[in-house]
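Record Glycosyltransferase, 462 aa.
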Amino acid sequence: MSDTQEHIIMLPFLALGHMIPFLALANKIQERTNYKITIVSTPLNIKYLSSNRQNPNNISLVSLPYNSFDLGLPPNTENTEALPLKDMVTIFNSTLSLKDPLKKLILEIIKKDGKSPLCIISDTFMGFASEVAKSCGIFNVSFTTGGAYGTAAYVSLWLNLPHLLAINGVFKMPGFDENSCIFNVSQLHPFMKLANGIKAIKNLTKLPVWCIGPLLPQCMIKKGEKDQILESRIAKDHGLSPEKCIEWLNKHPKNSVLYISFGSQNTISTSQMMALALGLEDSEKPFIWVVRPPIGFDLKGEFKSEWLPQGFQERVEKGNKGLIVKSWAPQLQILCHGSTGAFLTHCGWNSVLESLSEGVPIISWPLAGEQAFNSKMLMEEMGVCIELTKGVESVIEKDDVKKVIDVVLSTSGKGKEMKERANEIGISIREAVKEEGKFKGSSVKAMDDFISTLLCTRNLSS
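=>
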């Protein structure tokens, strides 16, 4: 299956949670085929990807022209990290500026290689890639970085708009088995509630689908290699070094620590932040909390103590009860440590996979995108999650926080069941990417079938 002359172009969306899985997929394909792979994005994102890459082999990173200020965004803003909600639509629209530069690059590659690339692998949010591919005489493959359940529910909502026919706020998601995906309008992000006619995807079920993943570092998948986990964050503010993180975790019993993070681009309201802090203190459970300024403030600005209860940080850090981390923490190291017992997360798919691969049960607080669908699946179908609340408009009390923490970190009852189920799913995750002798996990088989299909399609069209 090896052919060094084949060439694949990859186009991720302008978000860290999308770019990292693209880089991981590129590594998987390159390891299996030795094809040339070119990942394209904007200049600052290419710089970020370069800082996260190890053993590049036959993978090239190419930047396309992009001026955020001219496109209506703050200067030097090229991804969604810490981007205000009001600018989200703008950054989506800004990606259209990459259309012509992408076509120009592909035509240059065709001229240089003497033949067309095998395909473009584009993010589902970069829809213009299909038109570019068609104009260049090649195929486009859409890559969704979300989970299958959440992606299917997200697509079904935008394609069918079932919430517009909700009865007493309740509706069923078309395409799912009877009674398996019932939602309330209150669970939807405000952008979804306003959807009134957009049909982004047609005839989805007629397209082939390959379930490749999880796209996690090999050292997370293979037992006994946890100490080798490295998270490069060049040009990012290190809120907590891996060394200090491990030192702090080593002071706490097994499965006792709650880790809290809402991803690279999310935050919560001031009142929610205050209630979360009070509930954490009342629970008396040790925790690591990654914080950034609340909704309505500059997410890249300084975190102010006034957003937390008076003296809160000093009290919890004094007795090693809590660790407040500004901006970024080494999430992989935290989730892989034996002291980590639960993860309070926005349910972004990368975070979900990282948590479950280590058998860490989840407290969910979905905020945007398909996260509410992921949360529902984790609770109702997998039994590894309990939901605290939804969105940035909800009201929570400190008692709500304490209650869910007590449940998940309990060594008996529901907490014990969630931990056992999370461990079982962790085993399944490792089995999916396993290849030993004649055995191939489901992800390995899917990758082989994907490559074979691309080659067969090229042969049939030539």
